[in-house]
Structure formats: structure tokens, C-alpha cells
Amino acid sequence: MTSIIGGTLPYKSPEKAISSSSYSAENDTSPVDAVIFAGTSLVLGTACRHLFNGTRVPYTVVLLVIGIVLGSLEYGTNHNLGKLGHGIRIWNDINPDLLLAVFLPALLFESSFSMDVHQIKRCMGQMVLLAGPGVLISTFCLGALIKLTFPYNWDWKTSLLLGGLLGATDPVAVVALLKELGASKKMTTLIDGESLMNDGVSVVVFQLFFKMVMGHNSDWGSIIKFLVQNSFGAVGIGLAFGFASVFWLKFIFNDTVVQITVTLSASYFAYYTAQEWAGVSGILTVMILGMFFAAFARTAFKGDSHQILHHFWEMAAYIANTLVFILSGVIIAEGILSGRAISYKGNSWGFLFLLYLYVQLSRCVVVGVLYPLLCRFGYGLDWKESIILTWSGLRGAVSLSLALSVKQSSGNSYLSSDTGTRFLFLTGGIVFLTLVVNGSTTQLLLHLLRMDTLTATKKRILEYAKYEMMKTALKAFANLGDDEELGSADWPTVIRHISSLKDLEGRQVNPQNGYEAGSLDPKNIMDIRIRFLNGVQAAYWEMLDDGRITQCTANVLMQSVDEALDLVSTSSLSDWRGLEPHVHFPNYYKFLQSKMIPRKLVTHLIVERLESACCISSAFLCAHRIARQQLHEFLGNSNIASTVINESEGEGEEAKQFLEDVRNSFPQVLSVLKTRQVTHYVLNHLDGYIKNLEKVGLLEGKEVSHLQDVVQADLKKLLRNPPLLKLPNIDDLITSNPLSKDRSSFMSLAIGETDA
């Protein structure tokens, strides 16, 4: 396997190979013992997740400590851990490049695929600043401080090599921490995206300085070429795999296993192609691939497939995180204990803590220098968020793997063994300190900055929810509280066992009334608009699952909601604004009036565009109607609910007028659209009915398979050959077009005369 640092590394160092072989011979061990370590790690990880759930101790910190304990027991005492110890040694001796290739693709793809595409677009400028100039600033700050203050007589290249190794945050550690602490979506997207992107950039910078340390002569031209080739090459490979995978998914129908396999194989093949074949950043490649899937393939997974895919990648990330952090702890322990000549010196630990301060200082410098620009891009950045951004600069498995690569490549005239050992000792210490100190105190910092507290609006919404919970509980009790077989239940006992309802018992006042006084506060309205638009987006997802809208239409509709969510603080509901360009005909359609274009082709393109516009308009009106009903049921006739509902009704006027005009001038379009929707809905309903018959035991396996195959075949046929509108004569279109002021051309239906 080609190393990330450009050379071929052995599977294990000679010292490790000798010790491991002798250990294996004495204890009659087997390579299969590696499975014992993996199984033990998952059991310990599961136990810790259960025990520390709800506490302020991050799960990843606990895993790292467990790994250090296991590594210390195996390498630092005379009490060997038997087969478990041999399994630990097998995993610890894995080539660092193989370690990254096994775990990183799954972790990086899961993280980037789960990110919000719209927020990625908004935060992209901030991510590029932190990942580009930010990594360079951090690298040179750390390198200069190490060169000027550490007594190791390292040259500038070696100092900058360690600075590049430690200069970027680790996505594995950061993503795991943010998901566990429940940070805001905006902060999570920014820090998550920055860590993914700058980790790839830092590996490229590390490769550059490592080549310099190993004696490669590099001028500025070759350096720039190397950086550009690695960065843009990774983007190109990621996009290529994204296009190919999404194109493949279009031919897969209701086969969740194949869909998941495509995503999994694409992530690993993309990483291998970039890292080993093309020699560019595999991390950046997988990140681009995941973001491409999030942008163009999220709506390809519908209904149960979407949930199953989400759970699969969540489980894969959990397993990978557990193994990676426990193994990181083992590597740290072994690195410290194997370099006792260094780690047993008191000044080595002093310089480790000094380096930790330098790492935090360099992160402060990066955020401070770029702060004026970060405030002007994307969603901006306030001082509280900048503190969290600074403190969340964790290091993890990627930095350790790079340090292991340096250690394994040391022992020559360019890089001494002592330097390689110091790299691993210092890197392991920084990983431990950032995870334990920064990781365990981030939640406390969020609390001190009051970034984890509920606003008054959210507290009032909680009161609404609790009130509705009591009503729901009473209905459930009325349905099941008395029956012919067992008689009646005791309501006070029921309440006593449902702690969430204890404080609500006996309350007669509807908390909706709290919104009547001062209900038009801008923050309250903004919060309700956000919840309303979230309801609209949920309705779009349901329509997609039911087959009422296509994947392309769903992408357009959901993008309009994302854009409207950015404007809720400054304007009323505005998601129709993002749909108008897709409803009205663009100006380039005027070219179709040229006599050079065949009339039948013109008619086909116009009707296809008109069908899409009608589908978008009807879905918009239906989703808003559903969201209005839900909001009214939840908030009643409060002033704030009425305000948002009125905004929604005003938004739909133009869509209603558009559909009415089409109904008067070209009703066949609406008839065909409705026919497609009803056909798809009926087939979905039949599929659900068959599953229900199997659930209640009225159908058996072969019977279910036969019936489902028939229904699925009809669904596939419907999607690939839907009912088509019979194209009318172009002269009929012209004469039957009431939307045109002068009726002279069908194109005036929406080109240039959309005000008609």
C-alpha cells in the first residue's frame, strides 16, 4: 500500500515484529485474536455509552481513557492480557495508512452525507477560510514556536512538519463530540465542515513538508503545483464518483440493500482511487462525495429506505468511532511506554504541556486573524461562537496515524529514530489533552456562554407540547382504560408512573392563551415561522414517499424552504419566491419561437415545463395547507398563529391563480398529473395492504412475495413510463391560451408576460 507520505511503509516496525513474533510463539496465539480486541472494544464502548448517557462526560473521552488503560496494562506491566493482549498488539501494529483506509471513508462519508446542503453552501466561504489560510497560519505559528523554544535542534522543515501534523482539527473527534453535545445546527455545520475540509488540507501540507524533510528539493513552482494538484484532483475524483453513483441509483428501484451497498462501495473506492492511485487527498475526495450525495441523492432514498440508510451509516460510524478511539488510546500508551528514554524525562512532559498551550494559542490566532472575514461570510460569527470554534479544535486518529507514519519512516540520515519517537509522544499527548480537556469542558463552556439554554419562545412551545401530551394521554386512557376482560384502570396510578405528566395533572388553563399578550414579538414570530416551514418541508417528504412529486420537484421545493428559513427574521414567509423561476418560463424559451426549431419539439418542451410548474404549484399549496392545519391545531386561534397562517395564505395566491389559468386554458395537464399521483398512491396503498395482511398472519411468505412482485413491477413501470399528455396541435395551443393578453403565441403564457 502506498503511504500517505509518499513512500512504501512496512507492515510493522522491526522491533514490533520481533516482539510480536516471540510473544506469539510463547503464548500459542493466533491472528484471529484480533477479533477478540474488536469485540471487547465494542462491548466496553456499549457499556460506557449506557453508563455515561445523560452525563457531561463525552463518550469519546471515555473510550480514549479505556484504550490508554488497556495499552498500559499490555505494554507497561508484567501482567500480559493473554489473547486480548495479542489482539491489542495486532491492531497496534497495523500500518497507519491501512488504519485510515479502513475507518476514515465510513466516518467521513457519514458525516458529510448527513450535513445540511443549504447550510454547507452558506458556510462554504467560512470553511474555505479556516481550511485554507487557517491551516497555513496554524502550521507556521506552531512551527515557529517549536523551532524557537524547543531544545531539540530541529531544523525549520522538521518543526513545520510537526506544526502541519498538529495544525488541523480532526473530523473524527470533532464530529463525534458535536453530535453528542447537541450544538446548534449552524455551529455544527461550520465546525464539522471545517474539520472535514482542513483535515484533508493538513494532510496535503504534511505530505509537502515530509518530502522536504526526506531530502526532496522543492521550489515554489513545484510546491504550488503539488498543492493545487492534490486539492483540485480530490474535488474532481469526488465529483466523478458522485455523478457515477447517483446515475446508478436512478436505475435501482426499492432495493435498499443495493442502494446502501452503492453508497458504501463508492466511499471506499473513491478514497482508494484518490489516495493510492491518483496520489491526491482521499479525505477531501470522500468529503466531496458525501456532500454531492447530500445535495443530489438524498431524495433518491424514500420512505423506509431513507430511514434504513440513515440507521446503517449511523451504526457504521458508531462502530468505527468506538474502535478508532480505543485504538488511539492504545497507540498513545504504547508510544509513551516504548519511548521511555523520552517520556520518563520530566522536561519532556513539560514541553508536552507547553506544546498544548501553543496549539490553543495557534487556534486563537487563526480565529482572531480571520474573524473579520468570518463575520462577513455565510451566517456570520459572533464572539460566543468564535470561542466555541476556538475551543473545539480537537486532534484525533488522523494526527496519530501521521505521527505513526513519521516514526516508522525514521531511523535514517534525514529523520532520526529519536525524532520519530518524540513526534509520536508529543502527538499522542496532544490528542489526549485536547480530547480530555477541551472535549470534556466544551459542554460546560456552552453552558457558561448560555448557548445551551432555551429561549422564552422555546419554553412556551414546550408548555404547548406538554399541554397536548396531557390531552393525548387522556384520550389514550379513554380508549384503553376500561374493557370487558380486565375492567377499569386506576388513573392516579397511571399518572404516578408517567413522570412527564405529573406536573400537568389538574391543569385546566390552555397555555395558548399566553401568546395573546405581546404575541407579536419578532422573536416569537420568527420561531413560529421556522416551525411552520419545517412542517412544509416534512409535507414535501411525505409527498415524495407517496409518489405525488418527483425527485427533481422535491429538490426544488425543499431548496425553496431552506432559502426561506434564512429570511424568517427579516421578512414574512417567502418560500414561493424561490419557486417563481421554476413556475414561469425563462426568457431563453423565446428562442423556441424560431422557425428553425421543429414545432412538435417546441410543444413537447413547453408542455413538459408546464407540467413541472403545475406539479410545483399544487405541491406548494398542499404542503402549506397541511402546515396551516397543524399549526392551528397546535396553537389554536392565537394572534401569532393567525399572523403566520395569513402570511401562508397570501403566499399561495399566485400559485392558485397559476393553476386556475392552466385549468381554464389547458386542463389536460392537470388531469394527467392527477392521474399519475392517484395511480402511484393506489399502488403504494396496495403494497401497504399486502404487508398488513402478512403482519396479521393472513398471508404467508410466498403469497406475499408474489403479490408484492406484481405491485412493485407496476410501480416500476409507472415511474419509467408514466401516463403522458397527448401533445395537441400548436395552433390549438395558440387559440386556446387565455393567459396571453393578445393570444398571439403560447409562449406568452409565461415568457415576459407573467404579470398577465
Automatic annotation (TrEMBL):
It is a multi-pass membrane protein. Residues 42-446 form the Cation/H+ exchanger transmembrane domain. One of its GO terms (molecular function) is sodium:proton antiporter activity. Keywords: Ion transport, Membrane, Potassium, Potassium transport, Sodium, Sodium transport, Transmembrane, Transmembrane helix, Transport. The keyword Cell division does not apply. It is found in: Membrane. It comes from Arabidopsis thaliana x Arabidopsis arenosa. One of its GO terms (biological process) is sodium ion import across plasma membrane. The keyword Cell cycle does not apply. The chain crosses the membrane at residues 34-52, 59-78, 98-115, 127-146, 158-178, 222-244, 251-271, 277-297, 318-337, 349-374, 386-404, 424-449. This is Cation/H+ exchanger. It catalyses: Na(+)(in) + H(+)(out) = Na(+)(out) + H(+)(in); K(+)(in) + H(+)(out) = K(+)(out) + H(+)(in). InterPro entries: Cation/H_exchanger_CPA1 (IPR018422), Cation/H_exchanger_TM (IPR006153).
